[in-house]
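Review box. Two proteins, two foldings.
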Amino acid sequence: MERMGIAVAGFGAIGRKHAEVLRSCAACKRVVIVEPGAQGRTQAEGMGFDVYPDIPAAWRAGGLGAAVIATPTADHLETASQCIERGLPILVEKPLADGVEAARLLTGRAEAAGVPLLVGHHRRHSPVVRMAAELIGGGLIGQPTVATVLYTVRKPDAYFDIPWHVEPEGGGPILINLIHEVDQLRFLLGDIRSVQAMQSHAVRRLPVEDSAVVLLGFASGAIGTITLSDCVATPWSYDLASGEFDLMSGKAGLVDRGRDDTHFLSGTQGSLTLPNLRHYRFSGEQGWAHPLAVRQVPFEPGDPYRHQAEHFLRVAQGLEAPLVTGADATRTLEVTQAIKTAANTGQAIPV
């Protein structure tokens, strides 16, 4: 594979992660940062990156073969379009855009220009999640019937000093965090056709919700729930339980790994948990009066961000098709925004 130069637009937490991982990939020749903000520019320069104020400036400097868009979501369409105009393959962070119409427009522009577009739903690159999808698709738990997901964390008070984190149009755990769970469930169990939700502002009393409970109806006939809150003292979020938050924060061991699961996927012949991949089934006759056997499904652990980066480099070289397309990510965004509408209105929303 030919080595290539990559621009990373946006040097917040996720932009830094992309830049650090890409810089260590054998197929990446160099990484440059696109960051107009003084603080981000100073941080990037301190880490040894060349920094440019925008995509056109980075392009004029030469040597670019692809770009990662990790700017605020509202800027995705404009920044990605600048890359598309220059024929640069792009990895766009999730959410793909700040609305379904913008996501469709971005996807259409990439398709019309023949520019590869990968969306950064990084959990689909996780060895654990991919193994779970393979096992469920292969009938390990029988007919998938019910799913239960927990996303419960305590965000620090300073998190809410960032203005957009408290804006109803883009803040709150439904729009910021739930999209991960929606996409993961779609990958594991198939498309979602209807949603209902209830939300609460009772703890912080901000314009955005603290907590929500979501009901999901899958096209297959399975049903599911997601309970989420960002104001509670628990270890029960996939990011924490899987160690992915450690990868982002650089702080290892925030939670004692290996004890807790956050995703419980149940079917007619068994059940499977994530992130620990515990498989439960009856060893003989089925029924609640008979013992359930449990085993740990073996898997090879790995950093999903690194797997995603390596996949993106192959996509940019035309060696692989994107694992997460613009159309697929738009569908995840559509479901997530329908959940927000359901929480605001109290109505069941078909999607």
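Next protein.
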Amino acid sequence: MKKSLFIKFIVAYIIFGVLGFTVVALFSSRLTYGYLLHEQANSLYSEATLIATTYSETKDTSLSEDVVNEQMNAVSTFLHVDIWIVDRNGKILSDSNQKGYKGQQIENFDTTRTGGRFEVGNYHDMFPSEVLTVMAPVTREYTTSGYVIIHNSVQNILSSQYEILNIVYVTALIIFILSMGILVVFYVIVYRPLNKITIGATKYAAGDYAYKIETKSRDEMGYLAETLNFMSDEISKADDYQRQFIANVSHDFRSPLTSIKGYLEAILDGTVPKELEEKYLRRLISETERLTKLTKSMLNLGTLDKKGFLSRVNFDINRVIRDVCASFEMTCQKKGIVFELTFAEKKEMVYADYSKIQQVLYNLIDNALKFSNPKSSIAIRTGIRGNRVFISVKDTGIGIPKADLGKIWDRFYKADQSRGKDKHGTGLGLSIVKSIINAHGENIDCISTEGVGTEFIFTLPPAYYPEQNGEG
């Protein structure tokens, strides 16, 4: 809002007001003048007809002004008009205001000029300014004896018009001033909140995510402000996560690289005796395997972030568990750990991605082995709950502190207690597990008690057979 929206609104409002006032003035002037002209003409014609009727009903056969002189004077004085009585040829027989017109002959007298009702002009150039003229015939025995002509100055009509227009203009001005309240409403309800939102957006663009847009409105502006505040919180969290992610990646890559560099330098400068070189070369291989594992885990996460990566089939989850447990046979023998497998059915068919679920089980069992005490057991169970197959992996290890339970699914996260036991871990295993289970539209939960052990429980959909759904 470099060019203030409020200023633009004021300018637009003023332009609208000026144009509106101009249009009102133009049209109201014409309409008022036309209306007053016709109303005055009708009124004067009625008076002229009344006077002509009085003449028609008198017994005097002449058009003597004495007959209606009193009536003419009264009408002339009341309406501020000039009343003439003329004969058939246009000779003025009587003039109500005694202005010297009596006895004059109207040149080119034509009874059709008024269009049967009225005309506006100088009336045969007999008046210095425009007048409104009406004419009514005086008839006796079906014969026109003369005419009653009434003239009213157009200036009188204009004076009435100006009075009415003054009322219209004052009313329009009052409405215009009162309607400026719209500007106040716009400023309070729209502009001020919008200005705060603009400032907030500028702050967020500059990286100041701690700034909060304060607005008390509960309308669309308030909703927009709350949305931007929520967005800033999420961006701040994502920014923190990104910094933590980079720090964790740097740490996890730096440790094996430092070891590799140190061992190689020691071998090259002869610090390591020839008979120990094989030992240190094996350590180098171990560190490179650690880097390979970390890189592979990160690539897996990149794949899991893409949609549509699952390839679902029906398979026996119990058999997969047995196969995965068998792959840890050597590790179990070294630590004296045994698996306790409890299956509700001999076969438990599920509909899922075989390789991805195999990876889930491998990561969960690998974690259980790392943090289990020697000569202990790991319990693995499967069963049916409602319309889902559940799988449980439970160890009797060190457990997870309550403060860390909500963070174990974060990438590269390692609880402080686990760092001593998990020297070669990447902190990505549980993040991969959760991503795979969520991709299946299922859930995974963790129940843990420090010093007692940890249990992971997740669900999978049962086997899917198209013929059961009318698709066979």
